[in-house]
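#struct-pred

JT: dropping the chains for the assembly here, can someone run the whole complex?
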Amino acid sequence: MRVLVIGSGGREHTLVWKLRQSPRVQKVYCAPGNAGIAQIAQCIDIPVAKIDKLVEFAREHEIGLTVVGPEAPLAAGIVDAFQAEGLPIFGPTRAAAQLEASKAFAKQIMQKYQIPTAHSQTFTDPQEALAYLEQKGAPIVVKADGLAAGKGVVVAQTLAEAKAAVEQIMVQKVFGQAGAKVVIEEFLVGEEVSVLAFTDGETVIPMVSSQDHKAVYDHDQGPNTGGMGAYSPAPVLTPALLEQVEAEILKPTIRGLRQEGIVYQGVLYAGLMITEAGPKVLEYNVRFGDPECQVVLPRLKSDLVEIMLSVLNRKLHEQEIVWYDNHTACVVMASAGYPGDYTTGQEIQGLHEVSALEDTYVFHAGTAKQEEKFVTAGGRVLGVTAWAGTLEAALEKAYNAVKLIKFEGAHYRKDIGQKALKHR
Ligand code: AMP
Ligand code: GLY
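RK: done, full complex below.
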């Protein structure tokens, strides 16, 4: 079978890496991919937004399975476009992708189907939003309704910050139409965890848990990023809590959507806060997380192609999914300036040395090739990932690899996985 992966980051490198391990796969293409992906797949120069070109490519190359990495093409209806042509594609339809593309929609579903989440209200009028903030006080959380590349959420410690966020999102429209509505919600206290699940719209099978590190600096300081690292499993999610998440969050979400006439097929990602009152949904994503994918898929023993095909055929209930009983850690190395404006084009050294290390793999997020040399080409550059029998050992391997890799201005968090170790 020929497989096409859509996207160009660390998540997509991981998907390509795992999919090509399947004995059913002869060839993997990636659109548009990056320099790391190009080492193990054929990259094709089609941007993720060019849905008609991607459909044409899949038809002409007889692609047996297309896998969509990022949210933007899902929200734009890439799955609907492929399905209309009878082309097999893994991911939710445009209607289902609203769960991520509109926080107001997600909140509506959670309220209607009694899925635990922060209390909230949605506004289209900035004056009303400001009046609500006055009434509620800080700390409080302001979220742009639409897709804003992970930057549309402001956790405001003061009323002034919250008001400034409403002003920027709704009046200055820094995220454009994504800020036509805002969701204002209660500030939740607890530890975060990501629970991803495969679902065919009926059966829901959770993957192993993971934890992202969203803030740019150690000890969760500084602005939020796309994610500076991750590990799996996350001990905060005990087996009892996982059962609760399945019964009270994952299954009711998929069942609720079905009652709305939406069959959700793909990966459902629940970003959760484990509060004193139990797990609550912070956000849904309609895809693998990045960098959660980098720590979850290396632990998957089963054939990912088979799982994905069973999702498409709505036969997930027949599928057995087996995981390795190990620990993974991913440390993201980022460009100088990220998550603000960042530099690119810096030569990356040490990748060859790291490629010889055991149980270590470098997933490329933003790299390019210039005359046989790898150079930086994005904010997040590399996801240095390792696995071992314990989290301590996985972290040691990952950080040992990080120390061998050099590029001008590189920065990374030194405290990946520390929250897990505190659970001991
Ligand atoms: P989101 O994109 O909605 O997951 O929000 C990004 C980040 O903001 C989350 O990972 C949390 O760290 C934080 N956050 C979002 N909503 C809340 C909330 N209600 N209370 C506390 N922190 C939140
Ligand atoms: N790591 C968070 C996300 O993928 O949205």
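JT: nice. The domain at 2-93 is CATH 3.40.50.20 (Rossmann fold). The chain has four domains: 2-93, 125-180, 191-318, 327-422.
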